[in-house]
Write a structure and sequence with these properties.
Layout (H helix, E strand, L loop, with lengths): L6 E2 L2 E5 L13 E2 L3 E2 L6 E2 L9 H15 L4 E5 L7 H12 L3 E4 L1
Parallel strand pairs: 2-3, 2-6, 6-7
Antiparallel strand pairs: 1-2, 4-5
């Protein structure tokens, strides 16, 4: 899967929305997350009852990237409102030794 990643300027893309990019799970990695209504907790759209799902996804993505010696990523999202979702995601990737260098 990871060998065909799409890169921007040599940096892998992690998408937060399947609508605007052709997500094929081979060239662009999809992070399935949304914010819970009324607070800043992140949950998976597919598994909204698993509060740890987004963190598990980020840990898995980080490990895949580190296995191919990638430590920087670009996040792709359609709309940014307050930025709280992106800040949380950036901090979770940072916790897993992956630097977000662009959005």
């Amino acid at each position: 899967m990871i060998q065909y990643l799409l890169f921007i300027g040599g940096i892998p893309i992690i998408s937060l929305d399947r609508i605007y990019l052709d997500i094929d799970d081979e060239s662009i990695i999809f992070l399935d997350c949304t914010r819970l209504e009324g607070n800043d907790d992140l949950v998976s759209r597919k598994n909204p009852n698993d509060i740890n799902n987004v963190e598990k996804q980020i840990e898995t993505i980080a490990e895949m990237l580190k296995n191919i010696n990638e430590t920087k990523i670009v996040l792709a999202d359609d709309v940014v409102f307050s930025g709280s979702v992106l800040r949380t995601i950036i901090n979770l990737f940072k916790k897993n030794d992956i630097e977000v260098v662009g959005i």
